Structures are given as C-alpha cells and as structure tokens.
Amino acid sequence: MPRSREILIQGTIIYGDDFSAEEGYISIRDGIIREFGREHVDADFEGLVCPRFVNAHVHLGDSAFKDPPYLPLSDLVGPGGLKSKMLGDTPRARIVEGMRRSLEQMVATGTCAFVDFREGGAEGVAMLVEALEGMPLLARILGRPGAGQKDAPKSCWGLGISSTRDLSEEVVGALVAQARRAGQAVGIHAGEAGRDDILSALTLQPDFLVHLSRAKEDDLKSVSRAGIPVVVCPRSNLMTGAGLPDVKMMVHQGISVAVGTDNVMLNSPDMFEEMHLLNKVLLHDDRQVFKMCTLNGAKIIGLDQRLGSILEGKEAKVMVLNKNSNNLWGSVSPLSSIVRRAGPSDIIAIL
Q1: 8 Å CB contact between 268 and 242
Q2: Cα of 43 vs its chain's centroid, Å
Q3: 291 and 280 belong to one structural domain
C-alpha cells in the first residue's frame, strides 16, 4: 500500500501531558504524531492545536427523547421512571438514529473517545454498535442486564451499574464477579441521589465511580484511599437537582477526575459546554480542567498511551482552532481561552 501523505499543522501547540503552549508545528503520518518542531513550516493547517476530548460518561440511548419535563431524579432516571418508559416505548430505529446523530455531534464538537453506560442488555449494545458503524470514534461500552435478564452482555468493555441501591447486594455482587472473570472494567453510579450508596459501591472496588455530587469530605477521603477515579457530570447534576460535585476537594484529596456529559435527553454531548461550567463554577484551574476533559478520561479507559495529549508516538486525535476568530482573537493565554470560551464554531479542522 502507498504511504499516506504527511500532514503538517503549524501554530500554538498545546503540547505534552502538562499542556504547555508551544509555538511550532507537528507532523502527522499514518494517523500518528511523528514530530514536534519549533521552526516555521509550510503547513496544511495553522491555528491553535490541542488534543480532542474524552467524554467519560454518556447515555446515548436517550437521544431520541430530548428535553423532558423537569422531574425529581428518581422519577426521571430511576427504576420505572420516565427514561425507562421512553426507552421501552420508542421504536428501535428511532433510538439508533438518535444515537447516530449524537455520535455525529460528538465528532463535530471535538470528542474522539467516549464511555457509554448502555441500557437494554445485549440488544441495547447491538443498537449502539450499529449506530457506531463508520464513525471515527473510540467507544468503551459498559453493558448491564436487560429487563428480566440476570446476566450483563459479555461482549462489552465493561459493566455499568446504575446504583447499588437499584439491585440487591447479591445481584450486584454476582454481576461484578462475572465482569471480573470476563476481564471487564466496572463503573458504578454513586453519590448522585444521596450518599447512602457510596460505601457499598466502594466495597465492590470498581474501576471508576460516576457523579459523587452528594459526597462529603469523609466520602472523598475513602475514595482517595481506595485509589478510584471519579467521573463528574456537572450540567446533568444541575438539571436533576443532584447538587454539584466538590471537584476542588476531589483534587485536594488526590483523586483523578474525568468529565462526562451524561444523559443526552438532558444535555448535548458537547464537552466544550461541560468544560466551561466546570472551570467557571467548580475549579478555577485551566490546566487541571483541560486535563480532566482529555488525558484523565483517556487514563480511565486505558487509552492514555494512545491519546489524550499531543506527544510524538500518540495518535493524532487533535483539533485545530481559529486563533483569529471573533471569539478567540485577543487571547493572552491560549490554554485558558480554550477552557473558558472556545467552542465548536472556532474549530477549523478535526483530525
């Protein structure tokens, strides 16, 4: 096969795992970042260059019934709630189309990889796999048993548990044991509706927890001691009244924090929007917030050696932003401007 053409990107590069802003270029061949240099080159693209996002928690099946009435969390997404009824009543073709449209939006807004907590058992997984066909996205699918089923799908990357309070201790324990035997990852929602499911989730030693919006300092100390990463979803927590996670305390306790957009029925899967809220409301730390939206998510899904930052040898999952757009013109700190104000309209190219 003929060798693919070299692609050169010139400008301000958000480079390395420390996300420093460096003037120069990167060379890409066969989808891999081959070189970073500081001289000026005749480039294919020029602008502000940064790694693409990792959306570490999303529910794509909701894409077919967006913006439902404001309801208490349990009535909205709990067992027997509106979401489960809508999933049961919505035709399969519409659910798949909704998923595909959201996947297209994720690509257009800079996401390169995601973690989906898939409802509906094996059929739910099959619908997402169908929607993913031809999509330039890396997917990590966490399955769960469908209605009336005892076993979670074995073809998934992992097991996604809604909350330990939704199932008996015996059933949850059996599912986790089954996942471990299959070499699957385990992710658990905890501390969203209340604190009462945090300890029980920790005893299962999951690979990561989601939300912890109701967690107190003692809870976060326990999470830190266990060395378990956390995925936060601030926009979803605001919509459902679950409270905002104490991200500053999480960082203080040494917890690795990643970011997700959660239910598509409540919020778009646009990581720019999630990043803006996280930075402006919960943690005034541009570098740390950007890391949460990129490299930390990649670490949770075991892909940090492949993506999440711009380094030689990593996959070229990058986007180029227009430094001269009306929105970004006048920036005095490129990374800060990405985290605080950049959006899809500033994107020149996505690789």
Answers
A1: no
A2: 31
A3: yes
